[in-house]
């Protein structure tokens, strides 16, 4: 599941007074203008679990606040109400998946991936992976829903930059964070043989720098619960993602959301569609077999999102002002040159005939941007030697041929990550 940025964050805090309310409507204000999961084009209220603030899930987790939503789930902060009075409070992030066979299967696969990762050796990168702590099923009006329990984290890394007054994460902050994320990615690839397939700034989550941040958030939700609206008797709550200003430093950063992850050590090559469009690796666009290299490409494209909250490849077709695969590939050709023959030989035959001539020439040269579309101009947020080293770092990931991309382990020692302007 990819959680949508308008309601992105994944974690939060706990409750007491709301747990005593007899009905949501007595405490929570009503609003008809909330923009949440019901605005998604494939929204089906019968599939989403009708969770309510104050509800006790499985008699253990009382919902405190909604943290976000995706096409196949909603995400909540919950308080463990089974703790004894002398025990410290415990809060969790609870992901409630939609009902339906495909959604249930996806959740079960995410649990299996987490269990596999947790059994691997004591690699230092393991500390930077967010895993499912437990899972269980609950019954909704129209079917079963899987609930996945995670440790609570503060927010996505891209949002962290906003606290510092930037439209991205400053490079001095991002560099040490990237070293940790690369250790986590190396652990996934080399020890766990897992391909994440959805590495983007939304899925790099920052932990709480101080437990008091979480407690303050919970008290705020008690005083001012999030508003909701009704859709055919289905409660839709507004997401509350703002945990307030930073109090000190940066919490631990972790790679999250393994709902689309797959094993890399399989006999049959992967070639199904993965990745959001802006981050899509060329082999995925071309329906060629793909492996661990798609994660490296993802990370390379995500650098621009992390540093400047911008997109390297938007794939916007000038003919329609909408995304097209042809325009996306044209942008890649302008930045990287024509795709090599060793990649084209692996392309799906139907896709190849749609995009290339028999000689391997791109059929849409008119879509290739002007020479002003280059990495130097697309990186105005860095300067001098810092910029030069950054672009060399990015080029190690942004290669047509997956075999030519650097591994996560090699990238963690790149000179840009230790350079101080």
Feature tags:
disordered N terminus; 16% strand; 3-stranded antiparallel beta sheet; Phosphorylase Kinase, domain 1; 421 residues; 6-stranded antiparallel beta sheet; Transferase(Phosphotransferase), domain 1; kinase; 12 helices; single chain; globular; alpha+beta; 2 domains
> Roughly what is the average pLDDT, rounded to an integer?
89
Radius of gyration, rounded?
Answer: 22 Å
Q: What class do helices, strands and sheet pairing give?
A: alpha+beta
User: Tell me, what is the CATH class of the largest domain?
Assistant: Alpha Beta
CATH superfamily of the largest domain: Phosphorylase Kinase, domain 1
Q: Mind summarizing the main beta sheet?
A: 6 strands, antiparallel
Strand numbers in spatial order across the main sheet: 1-2-3-4-6-5
How much helix, percentage-wise, in residues?
Answer: 25-40%
Distance from first to last alpha carbon: 38 Å
Number of beta-strand segments: 15
Query: Low-confidence stretches at least 5 residues in length (pLDDT < 50)?
Result: 1-26
CATH topology of the largest domain: Phosphorylase Kinase, domain 1
Domains (count): 2
String of helices and strands: HEEEEHEEEHHEEHEEEEHHEEHHHHH
Give the helix tally.
Answer: 12
Shape label: globular
Q: Please state roughly what percent of the residues sit in beta strands, choosing from under 5%, 5-15%, 15-25%, 25-35%, 35-45% or over 45%.
A: 15-25%
